[in-house]
Amino acid sequence: MRNIWTIAKREYKQYFNSPIAYIVAFMLLVVLGIFFALNIVYFTRNAMATYGSTPDAGIVTGPFAFMLVLSLPALTMRLLADEQRMGTMELLLTAPLRDWELVVGKWLGSFLFILTVIAVTWIFPIILNNLVVPGIDQGILISAYLGIILVSAAFLGIGVGISAMFSSQIAAFFATLVTFIVLWWMIGFPADVLPVGADVFRYLDMKAHFYNSLNVGVINLADLVYYLSLTALGLFTGSAFIEARRWR
Amino acid sequence: MIRVSKLTKDYGSRRAIDALTFEAKQGEIVGFLGPNGAGKTTTMRILTGYMPPTDGEAYVAGYDVVAESLEVRRRVGYLPETVPLYPEMTVFDYLMFMADLRHLPSADERVMDTLEMVGMEERADGYIANLSKGMRQRIGLAQALIHKPEVLILDEPTIGLDPAQVVEVRNLVREIGKERTVLLSTHILSEAQQLCDRVLIINKGHIVAEDTPENLQARLVGAERVMLRVRGELDDLPAKIAGIEGVQDVSAQDGGVLEFQFAPGQDVRPEVAKAVVKAGFDLLELRPVGMSLEEIFLQLTSDNASSGE
User: Fold this and answer.
1) Which candidate, A174, A229, A221, places its Cα nearest to that of A204?
2) Does B250 fall in a domain?
3) Position B24 in a domain
4) pLDDT tens-digit profile of B129-153?
């Protein structure tokens, strides 16, 4: 546990020294702000036309989840790939530290960073809450943000796992991005066309576990298990790759 | 402290080290000498728990490097060939990170002590990116020393340093080697000669020679060659010296210079010196020229190559 924390702490601090992390955070917040403003305009116009509905936290978390797909690869690409390239992997692998502690520590560092960014976006629901009378649905707010946190955890887990396979950040970035795009958008397609096995693809569809439940205020154990399993799978893959690299 | 038996490592079909067997005791500085690609780094990486061997056994500080890897890693300080540093961290933060990974109590004190030991305490708050190569090397060394390891493994510790820094690092290693076990690799022969209690010459994955630097030299040199210089001309001196028992192969050269050799172990230099003075010459210089460790090394490693091993 202590080793995990040591690795995570260094990694977290590292993000604040890295331009990429600032770019990612800035991009996330700016794009979310634009979406937010457009949504406010849209809902206001509808409300004035008297057929409107009340916005909820989903107008923030909906675009947020989408942005995570595109931005998180930039946060995870460096984690293990750069250690490999810089030769510092030799330092970590000869330190009294288990391989999985290293991988989990790396993941935790990136997770704490994205939690920080998520905390900053909390400003949007606060603003929204003040605009809407008598306030937004608190249940959806909690559930949707829990969803964002779980999706982030899963993406980062997969990202760390992929970063362990490469010694080039760029290669890790694109491999991660493609994996995210497949898991988020594409894996659901076969479900609509396949005569058999559609359920499997429907279950694997990452966005369905978010948009169909958490983002509309439904907390299902199945969705939590899904995201946590995905996180664990990513971290396990990362550890396995590091272990395999030792034997090569 | 280090016990290695029949250690073998294959990278695919290439055998990097082949059945290496050696030992290093506490308080001993053992030098690993060999050309690039001889298997020095591979051996060190196995001993530090970075990777497991294909075959054979290795014990460090009494623990098996494969089965008890974490115990080994707790007790070993390792400076890899490419100094593993995070340029965007400060020196102090970097060493604190290493101290934390090793669960050291009162880590900040220990960090400052170690920095003082390597003479870098003034740069504690500087970024590693701004350090010179020599300084980085010393920070790498500090990282390896921070937990006062029982065994210190240094891969080319003086490479890229200026002469003054080389001397400092050597002194430091010598100091540490008094109580702990040090295994260092180098391809600088004079370094092995000055620093090590014992030298292992390794080539193509095999140990081709193992002894103290002095014995190695004595054993491998067929004869020791000495150069002698007197003021003025030699005149009849070569004949006189050739008459001394044990002196072989005398050759006179210009400018009062003369060379001869003698068999190892029967040092005739005192007799020669007396004879020179007795004959009324002013003896200006008397020094060994013979085969240096460099030449021995080249001979050993190339012999080994041509014997088809």
Assistant:
1) A229
2) yes
3) yes
4) 999 888 898 899 999 999 999 999 9
* Helix (H) or strand (E) segment spanning residue A63: helix A58-76
- Same structural domain, B251 and B169: no
Tally of domains within chain B: 2
- Give the whole-angstrom CA distance, residue A155 versus residue A46: 35
- A30–chain B Cβ distance below 8 A for any pair: no
Question: Is B227 in the same domain as B129?
Answer: no
Indicate the range of A96-110, A199-213, B167-181, B278-292 predicted with least confidence. B278-292
Whether residue B137 lies within 8 A of chain A, CB to CB, comes out as no
Picking from A38, A82, A89, A45, the residue whose alpha carbon sits closest to that of residue A59 is: A38
Contact B75, B150 (CB under 8 A): yes
How many Å lie between the alpha carbon of B297 and the closest alpha carbon of chain A? 30
Q: Report if residue B153 sits inside a domain.
A: yes
A83, A242, B84, B220 from A167: Cα distances, Å: 8, 12, 15, 45
Q: What stretches of B3-129 show up as alpha helix (H) in DSSP?
A: 40-47, 69-75, 91-101, 107-117
How far apart (Å, rounded) are the C-alpha atoms in residues A143 and A124? 15
Distance, in Å, from the CA atom of A67 to the CA atom of B196, rounded to the nearest integer, reads 59
Q: Where are the domains of chain A?
A: 2-247
Q: Are the Cβ atoms of A94 and B48 closer than 8 angstroms?
A: yes
CA distances from B243 to A216, B251, B276 (A): 108, 13, 12
Residue range A110-144, pLDDT digits in tens: 999 999 999 999 999 999 999 887 888 899 999 99
User: Which pLDDT value is given to residue B57?
Assistant: 93
Q: B52 near B9, Cβ under 8 Å?
A: no
**Residues 6 or more apart in contact with residue B293 via CB below 8 angstroms:** B189, B190, B192, B193, B213, B216, B217
Q: B238 and B169, same structural domain?
A: no
Across the interface, of B84, B85, B101, the residue whose CB is closest to A3 is B101
Whether B197 and B32 have beta carbons less than 8 Å apart is answered as no
Task: Identify the CA nearest to B102 among candidates B136, B45, B145.
Answer: B145
State both tokens at B85.
Answer: 């540093």
Say if residue A49 is exposed, middle or buried (CB neighbours under 10 Å; 0-12, 13-18, 19+).
exposed
Instruction: Give kind and range of the element (H or E) at residue B173.
Output: helix B163-176
Q: Is residue A99 within 8 Å of A182, Cβ to Cβ?
A: no
DSSP 8-class letter at B32? E
Q: How confident is the model at residue B282 (pLDDT cuts 50, 70, 90)?
A: confident
Dihedral of alpha carbons A113, B83, B135, B104, sign: positive
Contact check, Cβ <8 Å, B50/A98: no
The encoded tokens of residue A24 equal: 């990612």
Q: What is the mean pLDDT of residues B207-219?
A: 77
Q: Which domain holds residue B168?
A: 2-218
* pLDDT value at residue B217: 67
Asked if the C-beta of B73 comes within 8 angstroms of chain A's C-beta atoms, the answer is yes
Q: Which residue of A has its CA nearest to B11?
A: A248
